[in-house]
């Protein structure tokens, strides 16, 4: 961060604009909008500025510029087309410790003006530290389009009700919850739709209504899938709930930037396995979850991938249900889906693979003893937690009648910048995995559709075994068109 964004109170503060052209005139307008008392110094003035002087809205300095000119002002903007002169103003302002912006010259400016979305009192300032003003403008347009038109009125009304809410909810956590619900609830809906009277009626019922109807501090659990690694792969709903939680219980596979979404007051509790430390037992996690919710907390149970795919979210939800506590479950992108997409492996591919199984590496246990038939019949198998079982998987494949040329992909650290994909075959699996020193977390995919990965690389910088898929292992060059035609 090269510059600190701040919101300056310029009401009734003297500000100076040097220059009298169109650009200067725009800056003068901006300063006046924030309540500043603006003075202008220029040899020539735009007609609108002259008019303002006549009407007494703008003061003009007629004396020639000197190094003392900037001294009485809070801030100044140099907006002439004389570069040397602008720099002189900036230098004088620096000596006098006055804020100075030189139009279109970031290096010479001690402050720069952001692109502004103004739905007062909601103000959004967008800056790129001078690198890409056009991008800032485009972001501004996007935000303008996305922001509800009456968001300013909503904020202003909330401001007027703050005192009332403080009186009604003396407990800080209760009050925060009230406001959290307020901004996504029916009163906010009324205000955003311009139904002021309806909003006030509803608010009165909530705040000054029957004291026995006082909102209780009910805890709730949200079992949320955080996705496979890329923080962009979390759902909007998951994102929103993480931001509202009082406590977050998280696993090893949850990325740091997802934890950053949490409120700064939220308590973060690690309940996963980490190198050298004993993992908390599932029973202990269930008990902790139930206790925290009972105590009135909003608890976000954050899991890698999807909570209901080898995530033991089912057990946690059952524990909450048994305790009669409320919960919500938010799905996530499971590692099989994330890794397949980021490694270019279509899990189903018309004519090649018509079904998928998600399983762990305990093949016979998870799939029954006829799993080799599945694979020979054009099926994709996505195996979780498989790294340590690779020797075993490899043995079984070779001894249970699976084609030795069956393509296999190992995707390590899928969807993260460290993603690595190793393409191999049933007969070469063990040797290739050992040579590549595969580490967890990794998914192992088996099935003919893996051949398409050769044509579908879009994420990894260096696709580890591109050559193997082209020349070695599979006999012939894989023709993408043929692959699809045969389908
Ligand atoms: N609930 C999770 C799975 C948890 S089991 C989900 O739906 O994805 C943990 C296993 O998931 C790991 O052993 C590994 O096989 C797989 N896994 C999780 N994240 C992964 C990633 N980024 N890359 C590859 N495999 C991953």
Describe this structure in words.
- With 487 residues, the chain is an alpha/beta fold.
- The chain folds into 4 domains: 14-113, Rossmann fold (3-Layer(aba) Sandwich); 151-207, Helicase, Ruva Protein, domain 3 (Orthogonal Bundle), CATH 1.10.8; 220-333, Cobalt-precorrin-4 Transmethylase, domain 1 (3-Layer(aba) Sandwich); 337-485, Methyltransferase, Cobalt-precorrin-4 Transmethylase, Domain 2 (2-Layer Sandwich).
- Helix content is 37%, strand content 17%.
- The chain has helices spanning 22-33, 47-54, 83-95, 133-146, 151-168, 172-184, 186-192, 196-207, 236-244, 256-259, 282-294, 313-322, 335-343, 363-367, 371-376, 390-399, 429-436, 466-470, 480-485, and strands at 14-18, 37-41, 59-60, 75-78, 99-102, 115-119, 122-126, 220-225, 247-250, 267-270, 298-303, 327-330, 356-360, 380-384, 407-412, 420-425, 442-446.
- The chain is elongated and about 95 Å long.
- The model is unreliable at 211-216 and 466-487 (pLDDT under 50).
- The chain binds S-adenosyl-L-homocysteine.
- S-adenosyl-L-homocysteine (SAH) binds next to helix 13 and strand 17.
- The site of S-adenosyl-L-homocysteine has 23 residues, from helix 13 and strand 17.
Task: Point out poorly predicted stretches.
Answer: 211-216, 466-487
Characterize the main sheet. Answer: 5 strands, parallel
Q: What is the name of the CATH class of the largest domain?
A: Alpha Beta
Bound compounds, please?
Answer: S-adenosyl-L-homocysteine
User: What is the approximate shape?
Assistant: elongated
Number of helices: 19
Count of individual domains:
4
Taking all Cα atoms into account, the compactness measure Rg is 31 Å
CATH topology of the largest domain: Methyltransferase, Cobalt-precorrin-4 Transmethylase, Domain 2
Structural class determined from secondary elements: alpha/beta
